[in-house]
Amino acid sequence: MAHSEEGMLVLCVDIDNDVGEKLGIKTPIVGEKQVLDVALRYALTDPEDSDANAMFAAINEYRRLKNEEGIERVEVAVIAGSPKGGGIAGVKIIKELNEVIAQGEYRYAVLVSDGPTDEEILPTIQKYITVVGVRRVIVQQSRSMEETFVLLARYLRKLVEEEQYRKYTLGIPGTFILLYAILSVLIPGYIWHVTTLIIGIVLLIKGFSLDQTIVDLYHSFPITLLAGSIASFLFFIAFIGGIQYVANLSGITATEALGYFLTSLVGGQIYVVDLIVMALTLPLVGRIIDQAQRGPKPSDVGALVFIITLRQVLIELSKLLIGGGNALTLILWILASIVITTISIALVQLAIREKEAKT
Fold first, then answer.
1. Do 277 and 341 fall within a single domain?
2. How far apart are CA 191 and CA 302, in angstroms?
3. Looking at the 3D structure of the chain, how many domains does it have?
4. Using alpha carbons only, what angle is made at residue 198 by residues 193 and 201, rounded to the nearest 5 degrees?
5. How far apart are CA 33 and CA 322, in angstroms?
6. How far apart are CA 111 and CA 19, in angstroms?
7. Are residues 115 and 149 part of one domain?
8. Are residues 103 and 116 in the same domain?
């Protein structure tokens, strides 16, 4: 039998590392005697947790493969992730899996799980070892109404207290409630439209796993990502506020509408053009901060200075579009913006050359 010659591994995965946290032991745990000892200790420590049943099921599967299937090279092991979940748990599980595989050069595995949470790691495990079967442990419960309510209350408490579930049951709803409160002040007439749009964007991100791309970007350029997120929100607020203001005007042309859009007030406090300038500058500032160790690029500094000076250019343009202002003033501000940007780039390049000359 191929499986027998190349080795079979019965894997019990504890993605949130309840075993390690509650018993104060290190994983991985390899071997029938060692796993049985841990399972017994865990069952005595927390008899209501299904992780103990998963370990007993893993031992049961190990004995079945060895005694009934006749597979000689078979081993049972428990590997664990982290209470923090996510990528941290995944990395720890991969590390422990490779450690177990290296001990016996196992090629095939049977995954024993007590629920869908632990099975989320299955695609990752399959990259390192061939999974030939998955055994899910379902703990039988009493059907009495009283015990059903007790069980429900226990799971609800788990959703609130455990970190891996708390961010979904408390964190996400809390974010939407906070967002609702902010939008009700800024754009009360469009609050449900905006809320629906945001929920749709969140579902789109999760559906196409764009959140993982965002996580990778966060690890590489954290300040840039944060600044870009704030900038997107400012763009959105500026667009909605400007459109709402222009929609209340009548008898204006398209060019006048653009001028009124740029100079409209959002929340009666800040111009749309100021929000646009802030939204454009934030990602550049974030990028400069992320690359501070290597020094700022002249192009980034130039773009930042140009956008800041662009604010007055847009103000003069909006005045001209609504029938006021002066074309000469607009041209002078455009020339000033170009000159100031050119000087800024030249100064940064000069500073870089002097630094290189000293080193």
1. yes
2. 38
3. 3
4. 125
5. 83
6. 17
7. no
8. yes
Q: Which tokens go with 51?
A: 């992780």
Judged on CB neighbours under 10 Å (0-12, 13-18, 19+), 299 is: exposed
Ramachandran class of 323: left when φ > 0, alpha when ψ lies in -120 to 50, beta otherwise: left
Query: 104 is in which domain, residue-wise?
Result: 2-136
Cβ 90 vs Cβ 122: under 8 Å: no
What is the rounded radius of gyration, in angstroms, for the C-alpha atoms of the chain?
30
Which is higher by pLDDT, 118 or 337?
A: 337
Residues 123 and 42 in one domain: yes
Residues 11 and 117 in one domain: yes
Q: Show Cβ contacts of residue 145 under 8 Å, excluding neighbours closer than 6 positions.
A: none
Q: What is the pLDDT of residues 24-77, one digit of tens each?
A: 889 889 999 999 999 999 999 888 777 888 899 999 999 998 888 888 889 999
